[in-house]
Design a protein that fits this description.
Blueprint (H helix, E strand, L loop, with lengths): L5 H26 L10 H13 L10 H21 L1 H25 L3 H14 L4 H13 L3 H14 L4 H13 L3 H14 L4 H13 L3 H14 L4 H13 L3 H14 L4 H13 L3 H14 L4 H13 L3 H12 L6 H20 L1
Amino acid sequence: MQLVPTWQLVYTSALRGTVCLVFAALIYSHHNRKLRRDHMSVWLIFHEAMRSQSAAGNNSDGVSPRKDLMRLLAFAMSVPIAAILGGSQLRQAILCREVLHNIDEGGQQAFLGNYIGAIIFYKQAVRDYPEYSRPHLLIGSALLKSGRITAGSTELRTAHALNPKDGETSLLLGDAYGSLKMHSQAASAYRDAIRASPTMQKAYLRLGVCLEALGNPDEAYQSYEKAITLDPFDAGGHRLVGSLLIRHDALAEGIAHCMKAIKLSPRVPDAYADLAAGLAKSGRYKEAAEQDYKCLEIDSQHVVAMYDLGQLMLHQGLYEQALHRFNSCLRLEPRTDAELDAKNRARRQAAKLTVKH
């Protein structure tokens, strides 16, 4: 029997291992939802894998330790494989590394609140690799945080077109549409986020808010209930469903949810205002006033609580005190649609009381 030289065995094994590693990385990138973001080359997958592997030293994206090991090995072999396959592939691997470097630099600027500086780095990443969706997503996010909603929504639409299955992009796009009062488009974007990531609790909450704005309280309730099921300890979810139930006269259940929200997060003023509304509807006026006072202790500029206190005083025949509360509402700046509505109602009530008394 003829013996095979040792160098030939080593060479054959290394070649087979390299080929298997390339195919393993490609198969993994195809099946893993986090990495199947767009049509990037395998080199971007390698480098992004290493970046997420080193970030915070934990398994934040939920993949198994075995898959993490495969990521690490894939990254370690990326440049040698690129060199084997040719110079153009090597240049692409280096370019991808530059793209991710700019993304990381932009992330540091965004963390410091320097959104303009962050956008500069993200745009460089876009110039280097325009087909990669994540820089567009990050630019859109930075624009939203700096108050440039229309520009942010445009950038997020570009990210969504490049990678329509990314739940994070759809969630932020929904936020942008919601800020522009485009509730139907926002609801569609949140549904896209849920399809991409069925356990994304924030998407269910924000979808519920949009459905309420569109006049679909039953669907909104179902969306809130799903959010609470995913996270039973989320105070915001309990407050939203409690507020919805109170406005539609399911008082006992709505009050229970608001009390749960306060227990989970005692410093949220809206929960006290919603609870006060439920108690007032139930005829428990003294308890309602106590909750409104607690709300104003946390947030003295809360227009809804101030208006509700005026209404409670008016119900008790305390006209001068009620007028004082309504006039106080008029001096406050509304921050939400609910507060704007409360201020308008306070203006009408103040005018009536001024004429009568």
